[in-house]
Specification:
The protein is about 35% helix and about 30% strand. By secondary structure, it is an alpha/beta fold. The protein folds into 3 domains: about 5-130 and about 300-330, NAD(P)-binding Rossmann-like Domain (Rossmann fold, 3-Layer(aba) Sandwich), CATH 3.40.50; about 135-300, Dihydrodipicolinate Reductase, domain 2, CATH 3.30.360.10; about 340-425, Alpha-Beta Plaits. Strand 11 and strand 12 (about 290-295) form a beta hairpin. The longest helix has 21 residues, at about 300-320. Bound molecules: NADPH dihydro-nicotinamide-adenine-dinucleotide phosphate and the ligand N[C@@H](CC=O)C(=O)O. NADPH dihydro-nicotinamide-adenine-dinucleotide phosphate binds near residues 12, 78, 103, 128 and 304. GO terms for molecular function: homoserine dehydrogenase activity; NADP binding. It catalyses: L-homoserine + NADP(+) = L-aspartate 4-semialdehyde + NADPH + H(+). It comes from Desulfurella multipotens.
């Protein structure tokens, strides 16, 4: 029988406690399958949601105790960047293998961490950093390795998908549903990371990097969130045969990359439109397989912890076989050019808030037409009120022209336009 593998855990919150539960509830199954066990040796966390769940552990006084000689793998499950980065770098210097669920860390300092890991001969597991319980990192870095990946279209934020699905199904308010997502443990510590698209952008930077062997960081991703989306938009989309989803898009064409996160109208029969609640879905289009789509719970304690434990097991197997080698760290990530998004074309949905008076539509249509934007359909809702939503779906138009037209309408037609204008693209 091989010797057991010892782990140290930094951070016992939603994910950390999920890891403890899996390692304890399924200890026999894991031992049977591996031929050895995974022991939680030490934990360190400011607060804990499960301190009394753990048996036979030592509660450390300082995270540095997790670098003790008898610990083989350390888990960074605190989130955030500064302390997590310091901890991970120190752990690598102490020759510890790392498992982390921290997309903010990898989307901003991943390349530093991978090269440090390569220098020190340790392995980094980060499966849980993208799409919770969906093993998409392994699919891209291992199972699709023989493919040239062309593009990725993905729902990678469970909180936003939960909010948009619930708004569609129950018509409860945005805030009520967000609070439920926080209670379920889906949301980030600062939920604006979810609803403003930042969490999705971090995940898309990671996916784009490993899919295109490219240096993509959070700052390279164009981001729009779902904060301004209203029932009106969701209802209008449904009437036209669409669902509204926060999508991450990454593609590579002529050696240029596009990586963006934004809400999209998606045709109802598209597989991504049918993925609801906390579920995530990642459609990968590659040259040999064509489209493959991976669906599963993208947030929450146990699904996320399942990915963390899978990484622990991968590294444990390497340790037992005496060949720990982080193949990802060995890869060369190239600096690539990014597409100018203003040059892109799509159909657009625009919600103007206008004063309900005669001639409003023709004034808006005139400005749109000046920028070569033609209207495919238009609806004005709530006639008779002071300010009403005017919903416009355009034919294909250039992104830069649509933005210029909206700016001109907002600036020069203040007597008819009120509040902010909402812009959503239609997925091709
Ligand atoms: N929740 C989810 O569904 C998913 C989360 N993730 C990622 O997993 C990571 C952990 O998330 P989650 O478990 O939800 O977060 P939680 O906030 O629930 O847990 C973090 C734990 O770490 C502790 N902690 C944070 N900073 C320190 C510190 N400096 N010193 C000591 N203890 C500290 C916290 O204590 P205190 O409360 O006192 O700050 C808390 O107990 C994040 O990177 C997140 O993005 C990834 C996929 C899904
Ligand atoms: N807040 C994130 C958690 C998982 O990464 C989400 O909602 O997807």
């Amino acid at each position: 029988m091989d010797k057991d593998i010892n782990i140290g855990i930094f951070g016992l919150g939603t994910v950390g406690c999920g890891v403890v539960k899996i390692l304890q509830d399924n200890a026999d199954l894991i031992r049977k399958r591996l031929g050895f066990g995974i022991n939680i040796k030490k934990v360190f966390s400011r607060t804990s949601k499960c301190k009394n769940l753990i048996t036979n552990y030592i509660y450390a006084k300082d995270y540095k105790e997790l670098f003790d000689d008898d610990i083989d793998i350390v888990l960074e499950l605190i989130g955030g960047i500064d302390v997590a980065r310091k901890f991970v770098c120190q752990a690598i210097d102490n020759k510890k293998n790392i498992v982390s669920a921290n997309k903010a860390l990898f989307a901003n300092h991943g390349f530093e961490i991978f090269s440090k890991a390569a220098q020190n001969g340790v392995k980094i597991g980060f499966e849980a950093s993208v799409a919770g319980g969906v093993p998409i990192i392994k699919v891209i870095t291992r199972d699709l390795m023989a493919n040239n990946i062309k593009s990725i279209k993905a729902i990678v934020n469970g909180t936003c998908n939960y909010i948009l699905s619930q708004m569609f199904e129950t018509h409860e308010s945005f805030e009520t549903i967000l609070n439920k997502a926080i209670k379920e443990g889906y949301a980030e510590r600062d939920p604006s990371f979810d609803i403003d698209g930042i969490d999705s952008a971090q995940k898309m930077a990671i996916l784009a990097s490993i899919s295109f062997n490219a240096k993509v960081e959070e700052k390279d991703v164009h981001v729009e969130g779902i904060r301004d989306i209203d029932f009106i938009d969701i209802d209008f989309a449904q009437k036209l045969g669409y669902r509204v989803k926060l999508l991450g898009i990454a593609n590579s064409k002529d050696n240029k990359l596009l990586v963006r996160v934004a809400p999209y109208f998606i045709e109802q029969d598209n597989i991504l439109a049918k993925v609801d609640g906390v579920y995530n879905a990642i459609s990968v289009i590659s040259d040999m397989t064509g489209q493959t789509t991976y669906v599963g719970k993208g947030a929450g304690s146990l699904p996320t912890a399942s990915s963390v434990v899978a990484d622990i097991i991968d590294i444990a197997k390497d340790i037992e076989s005496g060949t720990v080698k982080d193949t990802l760290s060995m890869r060369v990530f190239e600096k690539m050019e990014f597409v100018d998004i203003d040059s892109l074309e799509s159909h657009f949905y625009i919600r103007f808030s206008v004063v309900d008076s005669v001639g409003v539509l023709s004034r808006i249509a005139n400005v749109l037409s000046k920028y070569n934007i033609s209207i495919k359909s238009v609806v004005q809702i709530g006639k008779g009120l002071d300010v009403v939503p005017l919903l416009v779906l355009t034919h294909k138009a250039k992104e830069s022209n649509v933005k210029k037209a909206i700016r001109e309408i907002e600036k020069n037609h203040q007597t008819i336009i009120k509040n902010g204008t909402v812009l959503i693209r239609v997925l091709d």
